Amino acid sequence: MDEQQILQRMHALVDEEHHLRTRRSSAVLVAQPQHERLTDLEQMLDECWDLLRRRRALRDAGMNPDDAHAAPISHVEYYLHWWG
After folding, report:
1. Mean pLDDT per 10-residue interval, the chain, length 84 residues
2. Which of 1, 64, 74, 80 lies 20 to 30 A from 46 at CA?
3. Is the distance from CB of 54 to CB of 3 less than 8 angstroms?
């Protein structure tokens, strides 16, 4: 996935997340599947951010950004929690 594709994916995920959060904040009851979907969206966004940062770091170091690979979500969530 190149940067443009990552950013497009992130925009789509954010749009869906905003839609679900708006429904929740407007007193519409959020069913468990919707709550789980929000959790999934947050994790997918974290993965996208991680991949985007990895690509940019490689490019800034004069390396090929296409060599970047997404880390498993367990790693992403761990270091976001650890450093966040």
Report:
1. 96 95 69 84 93 96 95 74 55
2. 64
3. no
Token pair for residue 34? Answer: 């919707």
As a whole number of angstroms, the distance between CA 46 and CA 84 comes to 12
What's the pLDDT score for residue 61?
98
Separation CA 21–CA 65 (nearest Å): 33
Quick one: which of 34, 79, 18 has its CA closest to 10? 18
Q: Find the Cα–Cα–Cα–Cα dihedral 35, 17, 67, 78, rounded to 10°.
A: -40
Q: Distance (Å, rounded) from C-alpha 68 to C-alpha 50?
A: 10
Q: Which two tokens stand for residue 15?
A: 């749009």
